[in-house]
Structure formats: structure tokens, C-alpha cells
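[Discussion] Sanity-checking designs against the backbone

I'm trying to build intuition for which residues belong where. Below is a C-alpha cell string of 190 positions. I'd appreciate it if someone posts a full sequence so I can compare it with mine line by line.
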């Protein structure tokens, strides 16, 4: 008999409020707006010597750290083909066609994603979480799934069955997501 185990983490504290805008249909750009996002994490693997997949406390704490880092910030994609994001001193200038926004640098999170959709946020959170859990306790799930709900019942989901590939030798969260490590000290506790 084949058995699989996984854990599911969904808590009232796994939430963040953030502003963003996305583009769609080529060159349509939404107005700036925000969401109260909810995050759910599922991670699977074999049972360890304690008969659990992963320590819930480690999973909870690392998920909270990532989610809190996004809370009350402007989420900006740095890999979008048409949105230009440029840091200039204490400001971030964003351009899309003839539109222009300027934000305080400390209010922004520059994410290496092509668009700040719920699906891309789920992927970014999942990759960060895998790195953080590997750093903290040496644990790597066989698979991970992250769900980001932007409006109750309207979710983007990312799942990876290739977690080892996300954790390439020598890479750290700073290497895969520029900025989180240097900003972590200043902003995770904000």
C-alpha cells in the first residue's frame, strides 16, 4: 500500500496587505490597487524520526517571516517586459508606457517576477520558504504547494515537485531574490 504524507498550514496570521498592479492582454495595465492576501502552504515528504513531515513551528515561523516581509508594501515586478522599475536613491520610479509612479524605496518590494499576479506571488513565496526551511533545519520537501488568495475564494496556486532544483548548490535566498537578505534585518521586524 502506497502512503503519502503532507502538512497543511493555513492560519489567520498568514496574511499580508499589499498594493500592486498587473498587466494583461499585452499592454493593458490595471490601476494601482491593493488586496488583503491570505496564504496557505502544503508540503509533502516522508515522515522523519519524530513521525512528522516537518516541524510545524519551523514551517509556521518561516512562512510568517516571508509574509510579513511583504506586508504593507508596494509589490513591483523586476522581470516584466514592459514595466520598468528603477531605484534612484530613496525612491523607486516605475514606468509603463506613458504612465509613471514614484514610491518611497522603503515602501516597495522589488520581486524578480514577470508580473505580480497571485500565481507569481505564490511561486515567489514558495521558493523563499524552501530556501528558509533548508537554511533553518536542513529540510527539503518532496513537493510544495503555495496558495495566495487575493479576494476570498480567488486564488493563485503554485506547486513544485522539483524542490531540489530550486535549491541549487551555493544559492541562497539573496541569490535567487535580490534584496530580501539585505532588507531582512531592517524590515522583517517592521
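Best answer:
Here's mine. Compare freely.
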Amino acid at each position: 500500500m502506497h502512503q503519502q504524507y503532507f502538512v497543511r498550514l493555513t492560519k489567520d496570521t498568514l496574511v499580508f496587505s499589499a498594493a500592486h498592479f498587473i498587466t494583461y492582454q499585452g499592454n493593458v495595465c490595471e490601476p494601482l490597487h491593493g488586496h488583503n492576501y491570505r496564504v496557505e502552504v502544503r508540503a509533502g515528504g516522508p515522515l522523519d524520526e519524530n513521525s512528522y513531515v516537518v516541524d510545524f513551528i519551523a514551517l509556521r515561523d518561516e512562512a510568517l517571516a516571508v509574509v510579513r516581509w511583504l506586508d504593507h508594501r508596494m509589490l513591483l515586478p523586476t522581470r516584466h517586459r514592459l514595466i520598468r522599475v528603477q531605484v534612484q536613491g530613496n525612491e523607486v520610479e516605475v514606468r509603463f508606457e506613458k504612465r509613471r509612479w514614484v514610491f518611497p524605496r522603503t515602501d516597495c518590494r522589488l520581486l524578480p517576477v514577470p508580473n505580480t499576479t497571485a500565481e507569481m506571488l505564490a511561486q515567489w513565496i514558495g521558493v523563499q520558504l524552501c530556501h528558509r526551511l533548508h537554511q533553518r533545519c536542513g529540510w527539503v520537501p518532496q513537493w510544495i504547494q503555495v496558495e495566495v488568495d487575493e479576494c476570498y475564494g480567488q486564488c493563485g496556486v503554485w506547486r513544485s515537485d522539483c524542490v531540489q532544483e530550486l535549491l541549487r548548490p551555493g544559492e541562497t535566498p539573496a541569490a535567487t531574490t535580490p534584496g530580501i537578505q539585505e532588507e531582512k534585518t531592517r524590515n522583517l521586524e517592521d
